[in-house]
Amino acid sequence: MDISIVIPLLNEAESLQELHDWIAKVMQSNRYLYEIIFIDDGSTDTSWQVIEKLSQKNNSVKGIRFQRNFGKSQALDAGFAMAKGAVVITMDADLQDNPEEIPELYDLIIKDNFDLISGWKKKRYDNVITKNIPSKLFNAAARKTSGLKLHDFNCGLKAYKNQVIKAVKVSGEMHRYIPVLAKNEGYTKIGEKVVQHQARKYGETKFGMDRFVNGFLDLITISFLSKFGKRPMHFFGLWGTFMFLFGTFSALYIGILKLYKVYNGIKTILVTDNPWFYIALTSMILGTLLFLAGFIGELIIKTKNSEKHYSIKEKLNL
Ligand code: UDP
Ligand code: MG
């Protein structure tokens, strides 16, 4: 199979037929062997009924229905697990992404051998205040932290080599950082393509301003995880040991100084009146705690097996 198109959706019933027809047209005129995997992320409208209908008429249409709303990342992850195409393309269901971009994205992966191509909505049709400006700041921070020079991390339209999507695990709200996850797995030929963007035709955005707060927190998590996620002892153990030694030596110094002064009959204050005493004490305690955190982290990594993080209600054609 040439292409899997993975489409996560939440309450997008009005768009689905039109989106499907448009994709099918592009696929047929380019003679691709394809599948469209719709992941209904707990819609409460008639989205799933529409998908069922589409799948009856076109057996390239496949569906996954979540038991409840688990989030876009989980939906993408479920779609990725099923995708069989050599190239996997993700797009939003709201008709903001243009299916006509697919052939060029496909060629960039197959002919130019990119691992991943991220869409860049250079000209956006979203609200300037709530989306465009925060998104510029957000992308700048993401570039700085991840070292990936992408302009538009959040773009729903992206193309991947199949092995790339099988290698990444998209959880939490990490769908914004799949390129970073891919890079961490060693897929570094990552490119960007300017893509057409439309205003939302039906319904409204499912992500409010809180996306930027969550986005920044995720960014910190991801940069930390990529460095120390598999070896917490190297972070916590190092700083724990350092603090503990600092505390111990400070305490020793205070103790020896005290003994020396008492022995030589020099006038001296109580050890507990010396501010250094408290600094030394705190350092020793914090050092031990940090070390323990690292140790427990290592234990968790050793014992944990990859847990499932969504529940599927129904499947179509899969
Ligand atoms: N979406 C989803 N689960 C969610 C929220 C959103 O599957 O919990 C889907 C949504 O239906 C759409 C895509 O993710 O297909 C992008 O969402 P939206 O268009 O609301 O985001 P925006 O374009 O405003 O960034
Ligand atoms: Mg949208």
Structure description:
The structure is a single chain. The protein has 318 residues and is an alpha/beta fold. It has 2 domains: 3-228, Alpha-Beta Complex (Spore Coat Polysaccharide Biosynthesis Protein SpsA, Chain A), CATH 3.90.550; 233-303. Helices cover 50% and strands 14% of the residues. The protein has 10 helices and 8 strands. The protein has helices at residues 13-29, 47-57, 72-82, 102-110, 128-146, 162-167, 178-184, 210-228, 232-263, 275-303, and strands spanning 3-9, 34-40, 61-66, 87-90, 116-120, 158-161, 190-194, 312-316. The chain has an 8-stranded mixed beta sheet, with helices on both faces. Helix 1 links the parallel strand 1 and strand 2 (34-40). Helix 5 (128-146) packs parallel to helix 8. It starts with a strand and ends with a strand. The mean pLDDT is 92. Magnesium ion is lined by residues 92, 94, 96, 200, 205.
Overview in brief:
The protein is α/β, with parallel strands linked by helices.
Question: How is the secondary structure organized here?
Answer:
Blueprint: E1 3-9, H1 13-29, E2 34-40, H2 47-57, E3 61-66, H3 72-82, E4 87-90, H4 102-110, E5 116-120, H5 128-146, E6 158-161, H6 162-167, H7 178-184, E7 190-194, H8 210-228, H9 232-263, H10 275-303, E8 312-316
Parallel strand pairs: 1-2, 1-4, 2-3, 5-7
Antiparallel strand pairs: 3-8, 4-6, 5-6
This protein binds uridine-5'-diphosphate and magnesium ion.
Magnesium ion binds at residues 92, 94, 96, 200, 205.
Task: Supply the CATH architecture of the largest domain.
Answer: Alpha-Beta Complex
Distance between the termini: 14 Å
Work out the radius of gyration.
26 Å
Approximately how much helix is present in the residues?
A: 40-55%
Overall, the morphology is elongated
Bound molecules: uridine-5'-diphosphate, magnesium ion
Unreliable spans = none
CATH class of the largest domain: Alpha Beta
CATH superfamily of the largest domain: Spore Coat Polysaccharide Biosynthesis Protein SpsA, Chain A
